[in-house]
Amino acid sequence: MTRGKAVEVFKVSKSFGDYQALKEVSFTIHENEFFTLLGPSGCGKTTLLRMIAGFDIPSTGSISLFGTEIGTLPPHKRRVNTVFQSYALFPHMTLEQNIAFGLENLGWDKARRKARVAEMLELVHMTPFAKRKPAQLSGGQRQRIALARALAPEPQVLLLDEPLSALDLKLRQAMRDELRTLQRQTGITFIFVTHDQDEALDMSDRICVLGEGRIQQLGTPSEIYEEPENRFVADFIGATNFLDVEVLSVDGPRARVRTPMGIEIEAAQKGVSGPGKATLSLRPEKIGIEDQAAGEIIAGTVTARNYMGGFTHYTVETRGAVLRVSRRNALSQAESYAIGQQVRLGIVAGSARVLGQ
Amino acid sequence: MKKSHDIRRYPGFGTVTVLFFLWLYAPIAVVIWLSFNENRIVSVWTGFSLKWYRAALDNGPLLDAVRTSLIVAVVATAIATTVALMAAMVLSRNPTMRGAKLSETVVNLPLLLPEIVLAVATLILFSQLGLADGMTRLIVAHSTFCTPFAFLPIRARLQGMSTDYEEAAQDLYAKPLTAFRRVTLPLILPGVFSGAMLSFVISMDDFITSNMLATGGTTTLPVYFFSLIKKSASPELNAISTLLIVLSLVLASAALVLSMRAMRRDP
């Protein structure tokens, strides 16, 4: 499917004094895409969002919106709207007035405004609250109004700056689904900024992992999780075991490596040219334990156990390496392993990944 | 609040409070009491009378002084508040701007200088400039020393307000001026109001500068008052003072009600 380019960021850099927040970042966001900027705090993701919104101007580079250069336009001349982390609902206006604010500035007539406000309140299930002030709402309700206010002027792109971070856990999960549904319903391109990898994996069509002012990897959630291109991405997304390995041979997307545990395994790879030292990423849930152990088998001793409800995490000391292993608690407590217990671990060919340098 | 931490339960709380308020308000109460005394001699109470009020309201020069003071205070407050608002907007939204620290110091400088110095300097400057009109001189001088008093509360309010609101307004297609008028200004209004009140009171109350700059037709109320006291301690003074106290109470109550309304709106 070919889709139009909603946002094109080209070689954008941003410096604040001596500090370089972004270094020549380029990427394209497609029309009707749920696109996530993911990274730790200080990685430049918010700066990038603020530049698309117009609150900051790139030091160099260009940003275009549906083919029109907008890099230096002030915020009120860009057809993008933002859902702020703090929601920033105007406290002196009713919810209706909040939602109508953008429409008034765009010069919509009264009848059209009224219809659109009603439509938006309906969309976020807040119709009975139209005459209330923001202070009279709960966090989740404020979130909905912030969304309605930003969607009302029919933006070409909607920007969301960590909108779920102020909500409690249960509500956050519900809002994730709601956001996703809203995006499909409206067909508007969403650019979502978060530091929460679960949110990113759950909601996004594509994720752009930012770190140290650069794009570390851009891809679908499963590509980001299953095929991390470097140590930063493998470390930031999910938990993993890093092992110093020696690449023995490379054959296309596969490499044969010798692990510190003494065994040789076949791992997926990208960007490794030939034999030499490398880093291997081995996800805890990809290591089989006891009855689930398959492939190359190694022996170890359980040194720590963390019961997480749905999963149990084990720390297992093997000859040459300490591995984190997680096992889904599918059947019963019977399959739990005690500290000090000897266990067999299994690593299946292709389940680990050699990281590019 | 836990009962044990309630300050009202501390020993001696009641006594100290009563003493404190006596100390604070006893002189004022005496003035109000004596303003109704029929007798000319302050220490002799001969009966209730409103005649000093009548005398005060019939006193032409006094009413002129009130008028002068009010005109100067209103115009100076308007100028000082506008300047302070602009300064506060620029300084709180561009704290890293070159010269921001310096500008802020300059705005606040009149607070630190002894007023007599400022008054003399203003007088000399005005003579040098050949500015002779009494009213203009008073308004210019009052606007100057009122500005920092208007600036401080506005600045505090702006500093406490997230820039998210202004950004949200601009994000929703408001031009900068519209964003200011419809979002920023309503949100900082309590601060603007406190600033205006403060500069109004400071201007009404000013003696040193006004006395220095006073010309024949432009005597302000405090200056007139002072000249009256020097001549004789007429009970008329008590009546005028009482009227002023009532005026202040009305203004202060209005300020309180307005800011409480704003607080309720914006928790």
Descriptive report:
The complex is a heterodimer of chains A (357) and B (267). Chain A folds into two domains: 5-231, Rossmann fold (3-Layer(aba) Sandwich); 239-355, OB fold (Dihydrolipoamide Acetyltransferase, E2P) (Beta Barrel), CATH 2.40.50. Chain A contains eight helices and 20 strands. The radius of gyration of chain A is 24 Å and the shape is elongated. Helices cover 24% and strands 37% of the residues of chain A. In chain A, a hairpin with a 2-residue loop joins strand 11 and strand 12 (254-258). Chain A is of the alpha+beta class and 357 residues long. Chain A has helices at 45-53, 95-105, 110-123, 139-151, 169-186, 197-203, 221-226, 231-236, and strands at residues 5-16, 19-30, 34-38, 60-65, 68-69, 80-83, 157-161, 189-194, 206-211, 214-219, 241-251, 254-258, 264-269, 276-282, 287-289, 296-307, 311-318, 321-328, 342-347, 353-355. Chain B is 76% helix and 0% strand. Chain B is built from eleven helices and no strands. In chain B, helix 2 (51-58) packs across helix 11 and helix 3 (60-93) crosses helix 10. Chain B is mostly helical and 267 residues long. The relative contact order of chain B is 0.13. The longest helix of chain B is centred in the N-terminal third of the chain and has 34 residues, at 60-93. Chain B has a domain at 59-231: MetI-like (MetI-like fold, Orthogonal Bundle). The interface between A and B is medium-sized, with 25 and 22 residues.
Task: State the largest interface.
Answer: A-B, 25 and 22 residues
Question: Which band does the percent of strand residues of chain A land in?
Answer: 35-45%
By CATH, the superfamily of the largest domain in chain A comes out as P-loop containing nucleotide triphosphate hydrolases
Q: Stretches of chain B where pLDDT falls below 50 for ≥5 residues?
A: none
Helix percent of chain A reads 10-25%
Separation, N- and C-terminal Cα atoms of chain B: 20 Å
What is the rounded Rg of chain B?
A: 23 Å
Radius of gyration of chain A (CA) equals 24 Å
- Written as H for each helix and E for each strand, in order along the chain, the element string of chain B is HHHHHHHHHHH
CATH topology annotation of the domain at 59-231 in chain B: MetI-like fold
Strand sequence of the main sheet of chain A, in spatial order? 6-7-8-3-9-10
The mean pLDDT of chain A is 91
Tell the overall outline of chain A. Answer: elongated
CATH-level-2 architecture of the domain at 59-231 in chain B: Orthogonal Bundle
Largest sheet of chain A: 6 strands, mixed
For the largest beta-sheet of chain B, the strand count, sense and barrel status come to: none
CATH-derived topology of the largest domain in chain A: Rossmann fold
Q: What's the rounded overall pLDDT mean of chain B?
A: 87
Strand content of chain B: under 5%
